[in-house]
Amino acid sequence: MEAYYNCMRLKNRKVRILTTDRRHVVGTIVDVDPQYVYLRPERGGPVQTSAFYPGFYGPGYGGAGWYGNDILTLSLFTLLAIALI
C-alpha cells in the first residue's frame, strides 16, 4: 500500500519510476488505483505505448470518448522506486 500512497501524493507531477525489472520510465502520473499507476510518458522517451485509460465518457459527457493521450499502465507491485523530478 505504500506505493499507492506515494503515487497518490505525486499525482499530476512529473516523476521517474524504476521498476523491479530495472526499467526507467519518466512521465506524469495521471491517475492511481489500488493496483495500477497510470503514467503519461514523456515524449521522446524510451517507452512509447498506448493503452486504454479507464475513463471513458459516452456521448453527452463532453468528449470524443477517450482522453486521447498515450498512457502507460504500470502495476504498483512492479515499482521499485519513484522520484519527483
Short synopsis of the structure:
The chain has 85 residues and is mainly beta. The protein is built from 1 helix and 5 strands.
Structural class by sheet pairing and helices:
mainly beta
Q: How many helical elements?
A: 1
User: How many domain units?
Assistant: 1
CATH class descriptor = Mainly Beta
CATH-derived topology: SH3 type barrels
Poorly predicted spans: 47-68
What's the arrangement of strands in the largest beta sheet? Answer: 4-3-2-1-5
The arrangement of helices and strands along the chain is HEEEEE
Ends: how far apart? Answer: 22 Å
Largest sheet: 5 strands, antiparallel
The level of helicity is under 10%
CATH architecture: Roll
Q: Estimate the strand proportion.
A: 35-45%
Radius of gyration: 13 Å
Shape: globular
Mean pLDDT across the residues is 78
Please tally the β strands and state the result. 5
Organism: Paenibacillus faecis
Transmembrane segments: 64-84
Protein name: Cellobiose phosphorylase
Keywords: Membrane, Transmembrane, Transmembrane helix
Written description of the protein model:
This protein is mostly beta strands and 85 residues long. It has one domain: Roll (SH3 type barrels), CATH 2.30.30.100. Helices cover 9% and strands 36% of the residues. The chain has a 5-stranded antiparallel sheet with strand order 4-3-2-1-5. Strand 2 and strand 3 form a beta hairpin. The two termini are 22 Å apart. The relative contact order is 0.31.
